[in-house]
Amino acid sequence: MNDVWGEAMVEAFRDMMKRVGLVLPKLLALLSFILLGVIVGLAIKAVLQRLLKAVRLDVLSEKWGLQAALAKAGFKQPLSQVVGRLAFWTVFVLFVFMGVDALDLPATAGLMGKILGFLPSVVAAGFLLLVGVLLGNFFAEATLIATVNAQIQEARFIANFVRWGIFLLTAAMVLTQLGIAKEIVVAAFSILFGGVVLALSIAVGLGGRNIARDMLERRWRKDKEDGDDVTHL
Amino acid sequence: MGESFIPESVRTLLNGAEPADLVIGVLTFNDKATAPALARTLTEGCARSFPQRRTLVVNCDAGSQDETPQCIAQSLGVDARLWTIRHPIPGASRTMLSESGVPGRETAVRILAAITDQLNATACLVVDGNMKSVDTTWSQLLADPILDKGIDCVLPWFRRNRYEGTLTNTLLAPLTQALYGKRIPYHLGGAYAFSGNMIRSFLLPQPWDKEIMQYGFDGWVTTLAVAEPLQICRASLGPRVHQAKPMGDLSIIVAQAVGCIFHLMERYQEKWESVTGSVAVPTVGTPVGLGAESGSINVERMVKGFRQGLRDLLPLWQLILSAETFQQVLELGVDEMDRFRFPSSLWVQVVYDFALAYHNRLLHREHLLKALTPLYLGYTASFLIETRVQGVEQVEQELARLSAHFETMKPYLVQRWRWHDE
User: Fold this and answer.
1) How far from A181 is each of A35, A188, B265, CA to CA, in Å?
2) Which secondary structure element, helix H or strand E, spans residue B322, and what is its range?
């Protein structure tokens, strides 16, 4: 009885130690990958930021008005820092996934391959999102200024309509790029966009007849009153 | 110096051409009604004032459909030395605004400058073909300072009514005066005269393609004349009567005219930073003041335009204006129409803040310039309300006071400009 009990104990201990012996290196590999991810990420971030500063990216982005547009999109830091931080996190996440892959868990088998396969879509979607936000803000600002200068009272509404129209289009494109519920996104966008246009048409055609007439009359009167003797140049 | 802009037909004309002392450039585009008489008047004036000088008339036409070049040739007769050139119209130039209505006007002037240079002429006159008020004295007023007095550039000075050119009188002219220290009327277009020296040393070597396509020729050359070390004068040419052509939206006019000065402020920073005070520029002809007529003006719509800007463009103005200026602008919106006042000192501060924001690229530059329009309307409305019952002398005094404000508040601009550059 005692021998059987003793053997069972020893065997269980051996099995446990064997498993620990198998898992421990993998855990160490995970920790090493995380540590390496931080070190390589920081190194790449530092090199990239220096390189971008050397080519005067911040000055150029300020000169091209990109910095102001980025600030409006929520990025308050200089462009070189934003790019550096993005590079750090990309490298870090890649190393973490490598570490998780090294654990060789059945649930995460081939994770790295899948991630790498999905990465181009994520990068493209991120780029689309950034461009969409920048364009949305830019065109909304241009519309607002133009409509205010034309003394159209609904200036802010029109500008917001332009902004959210572009944001909506961007969101649909990003989701399609990521392959998330493609059919639903396309259908939802078509319904929503078509619905807005139809609603506007009906509103102007039926409900807004009087307003439209008033607006045209005002515009007509304004044009007639435009015979000012003030010249600007 | 690259001369790729000169058309082949002009090269052919230049080959073996006889030298000329004076080149008269007439810029036309469907100006049959005015240009033939104008060309004849100018040549008659030259023949009378400078009988010994060899004169060449160059008609730069943008492709008139009404046979303007043929009518000019007919009007001048066979004895006159006339070249007719059809100048190219670059794509970017189609959006440029000019009361002359001549597309590709800057290319035409550049070709005229090249012709003056190649023929070794002493002076070049550039006159818009839609001018109706040209008389025989113009040739002398424009060319004599260059031919006989060693002046490099003659700028036009027209007799205008009290509320003609409000953007010029309340922003462009006083700002240029404060920056470069020379009192010029900043009347854009109509007629100019350049010396051969100015053309060779300053006009032709400039980056024409990049700058003028963006901001137009008139503001560019006027700023160049006051910023560079050139001898300049203003020619009093009487009233400006012309076949007006549509100028387009006010915000585009503001953006182009003000953008030109702001852009050149960056190039000439070292020159204007150290300038204090201003000096009068010599005048040829009888000095003119403002005309008394005020015409019909819709001040109410201007105030409405300002108030709408105050309502809708506040977030943008907050970015552009300093905290102190912004606070003062905010307080303007509450007054009744008749009591509406936009103080001159505040207007100057607004203009300087916009110049700084343009320099610091706080906003897309075209948006920034166009966002100035409601503020300009506000100040103009206030100026009109304040002066419409006063005499023309008071209006002139008010404009002089405004110019003085621009000069005294210049340190505000210089300090902040330097602070950003550091």
Assistant:
1) 36, 10, 54
2) none
Count of helices and strands (H, E) across chain B? 20, 10
Taking the C-alpha atoms of residue B21 and residue B44, their distance in angstroms, rounded to an integer, is: 16
The pLDDT tens digits for B159-196 are 888 888 899 999 999 999 999 999 998 888 889 999 99
Q: Answer for the pair B112, B7: CB distance below 8 angstroms, yes or no.
A: no
Tell me: the pLDDT tens digits for B84-111? 999 888 765 555 556 667 888 888 999 9
Return the SS3 of B391: coil
CB A96 within 8 A of CB A38: no
Q: Distance between CA atoms of B402 and B396, rounded to whole angstroms? A: 10
The whole-angstrom separation of Cα B10 and Cα B245 is: 28
Query: Which domains are present in chain B?
Result: 8-284 (3.90.550.10), 299-421 (no CATH)
Interface probe for B, chosen from A143, A145, A147 (most Cβ of B below 10 Å), is A145
Amino acid, res. B333: G
Nearest CB partner across the interface for A230, out of B166, B253, B361: B166
Give the Cα-Cα-Cα angle A96, A99, A101 (nearest 5 degrees).
Answer: 110
| CB contact at 8 A, A88 and A41 | yes
* pLDDT for residue B1: 47
Q: Does B318 contact chain A (CB < 8 Å)?
A: no
Flag whether residue A146 sits within 8 Å of chain B, measured between CB atoms.
yes
Is residue B182 a contact partner of residue B279, using CB atoms and an 8 Å limit?
Answer: yes
Higher per-residue pLDDT: A107 or A9: A9
Give the C-alpha separation, B235 to B224, whole Å: 17
CA distance B339 to A123: 58
Distance, in Å, from the CA atom of B140 to the CA atom of A130, rounded to the nearest integer, reads 61
Q: Is residue B173 within a helix (H) or strand (E), and if so which, with residue range? A: helix B173-180
Pairing of strands B82-86, B153-159: unpaired
The rounded Cα B415 to chain-centroid distance in angstroms is: 28
> What burial letters (b/e) apply to B263-295, b meaning 16+ CB within 10 Å?
bbbeebeebbeebeebeebebbbeebebeeebe
Model confidence over B220-265: pLDDT tens digits?
Answer: 999 999 999 999 999 999 888 887 666 678 898 899 899 999 999 9
DSSP summary character for residue A177? H
Q: Does B308 touch chain A (CB under 8 A)?
A: yes
Q: Which amino acid is at A21?
A: G
Q: Give the span between the Cα atoms of B282 and B297, in whole angstroms.
A: 33
Which of B294, B301, B370 is nearest residue A149 as measured by Cβ atoms? B370
ipTM of this complex > 0.90?
Answer: no
Chain A residue nearest residue B163, CA to CA: A230
Q: Note whether B161 contacts A: Cβ–Cβ < 8 A.
A: yes
On the question of pLDDT at B381 being above 90, the answer is yes
Place of tokens 């055609």: A205
Contact A233 B167 (CB under 8 A): yes
Burial B376-404 (b: 16+ CB within 10 A, else e): bbbbbbbbbbbbeeeebeebeebbeebbb
For the whole model, what pTM was predicted? Answer: 0.83
Measured distance CA(B155)–CA(B225) in Å, rounded = 9
Supply A207's token pair: 């409900």
Distance, in Å, from the CA atom of B314 to the CA atom of B51, rounded to the nearest integer, reads: 62
Contact B258, B347 (CB under 8 A): no
Tell me which chain A residue has its CA closest to the CA of residue B381. A230
